[in-house]
């Protein structure tokens, strides 16, 4: 009888491949979530909470980067990408028991498109002039119509958490694996398993975990310390020094998931209104000058020394890990001092007493601003200093607090060059429209242009707009491939390197398959289990 | 003790000022194949994260910190002395103005002020200029603390019998100040200098810890101390502690020398 009971317990207590049910997963958020309203999410912490609680029609598999059915059993793309028809799963309920129907999807789209709400999620679904309309075509079928083709495709629905029209809890009623149970501002958020979650394993509703505790910890050092003590189960982003320390101290817990979409890059101020000397504007406007700088950078050294090998040389807006969108014809600008010197000579630059001078005899010297407090970035800047000294260029590194830096690069334009990084969470080029369109305020090197300042910027504008309204993926890819080529040829942004996704996962966690895409470790949260305590 | 402290201080000064002679390498030279290396014969204190020789950077960094912190202290103490003397001599109304100015400066959030001023400076300046500006700011902003002490001391002196006698003898205010009060303020001025110089040394270290002090590739004790932020690396790389030990030794020797001065006054 005892053996039978044990067998029963083991069968009920284990899911796939020894997975165990129950337990509380503990991890850290680096800031207080600004909102728990899924329609208003605009920061990383809120995004994490939405990912854990929100039910979506389609979920992007973070390993394959392909969309997979979630609340929608299937979908069809009609009218050349202007209409998406979803067939929903039947018999599902929100966390409070309210039934889920097509009307909830219609309601969600209405909320996102409410002009009074200014939903960031809604903005990403706006494709042109006109309204986005959703209509129920039966209790479990819904059609969403866009005024122009939705270039980002069905993957965009990965961030649309469905809300209930009828639940009295409104956005607090969720369809995701967890629901918010307790919140102490500045301290933690505790999520409990959603008893109505739609996914099952061995006839039992997932997730395996009973709860998730999200501690608000701004300091990454404190986060690491608490992980070491066993008070946190995972860290989704380690810096290279922390990774090395942890690898030495607790082998096997630190994992390198491979090159991520996060990159480090520099650019020159090419704004005609910038308060710079005319000869400096001439340098920075010279394609040969920019390319020479790029070819003088020893990217391999930067990856090896600063990132201890956990980075790859940068090529362009996306690295090869972006399986679909990366242009595989491109390679990083190779370190080649001779080529760099030839390029400079072509534009009248010449060495004089060990220093580079331009045609008019001005010594080539400029500043590179970056944000204070980022050790890796400061090391990159120090190494760039030595790399450019080989060309006779004197680089003055200036670290500024972040608000001052943003003021200079975004408003006053009082800077010469800037080194920054981008945590690019989206694999789709649409997410970079605000970088590449010459009219954009985020067009780093020369923002807010009334009309494109150069023919190649005009071509980038045309290509980016064309890909945004193109429904056929292969044609979009061809258009964005050309954008990547132009950026590679003109080097308005000099891509230095791509950081690897470095994470830490405690031993008791099972079914963890870290991805390079956000949210990295917990992307398959409903499958993750705790195999006891450390 | 005083003699020993002064010998140690002198030795540190000689080592730092002679960095060009004693340092095996330039402070900016990067040995990228030996980045973050432990101490070896070639690099007695190992190399930093980008492969620069820590020993050389310690010497060059010390030269900057040791020369410029006292220079800034000199500026601060000079302003403080002027403020204190003028408050003592120019009447109650002016003394109230000076006192209000001291209170105002003491209540200013230094860090934000320095951040703002640093943000307003032209970017494309050499590290040398950037260093000078940093210490000049420290010198110009650091006077209120010493000024309060000077003001009290100068006030006491101005009310003393010998000053009354000099004034009764027809000596002008500034002549009294220069001939009688100033010599009597010398010990306190010296003490303020010895207190302020190490404080500036630490302030520069704090600014560097925030990334706002001396810019790359120039070293200072402040930016060398930043490596201590990686506490976990200390057991493996005890050489990281050397700048801290040297700083503590220098400050201790300054304090010892100052204490000896005060006793000898």
Overview of this structure, please?
The complex is a heterodimer of chains A (534) and B (265). With 534 residues, chain A is α+β, with helices and mostly antiparallel strands. Helix content of chain A is 29%, strand content 22%. Chain A has helices at 2-13, 44-53, 102-113, 120-125, 220-228, 240-249, 278-285, 287-295, 299-306, 337-346, 375-389, 402-412, 433-436, 455-468, 473-490, and strands at residues 24-29, 58-60, 67-69, 72-78, 83-88, 133-136, 141-145, 178-184, 188-193, 200-201, 204-205, 211-216, 234-235, 254-268, 311-313, 350-352, 355-357, 365-371, 394-400, 417-422, 493-505, 509-510, 529-530. In chain A, strands 13, 14, 15, 18, 19, 20 and 21 form a 7-stranded mixed beta sheet that branches. Chain A has a 4-stranded mixed beta sheet with strand order 1-12-9-8, with helices on one face. In chain A, helix 11 (375-389) links the parallel strand 18 (365-371) and strand 19. Mean pLDDT of chain A is 91; it is low at 1-15. By secondary structure, chain B is mainly α. The mean pLDDT of chain B is 83. Classes of the chains: A alpha+beta (534), B mainly alpha (265). The interface between A and B is medium-sized, with 34 and 25 residues.
Largest sheet of chain A: 7 strands, mixed
| Gyration radius of chain B, rounded | 22 Å
Helix-strand topology string of chain B: HHHHHHHHHHH
Rounded to an integer in angstroms, the radius of gyration calculated over CA atoms of chain A is 25 Å
Task: Give the helix/strand class of chain A.
Answer: alpha+beta
Shape of chain B: elongated
> End-to-end span of chain A in angstroms?
32 Å
Helical amount of chain A: 25-40%
Strand content of chain B: under 5%
Q: Give the overall average pLDDT of chain A.
A: 91
Count of distinct strands of chain B: 0
| Unreliable runs of chain A | 1-15
Distance between the termini of chain B: 17 Å
Number of helices of chain A: 15
Q: What does this entry show, briefly?
A:
Chain A has helices at residues 2-13, 44-53, 102-113, 120-125, 220-228, 240-249, 278-285, 287-295, 299-306, 337-346, 375-389, 402-412, 433-436, 455-468, 473-490, and strands at 24-29, 58-60, 67-69, 72-78, 83-88, 133-136, 141-145, 178-184, 188-193, 200-201, 204-205, 211-216, 234-235, 254-268, 311-313, 350-352, 355-357, 365-371, 394-400, 417-422, 493-505, 509-510, 529-530. Chain A has 534 residues and is an alpha+beta fold.
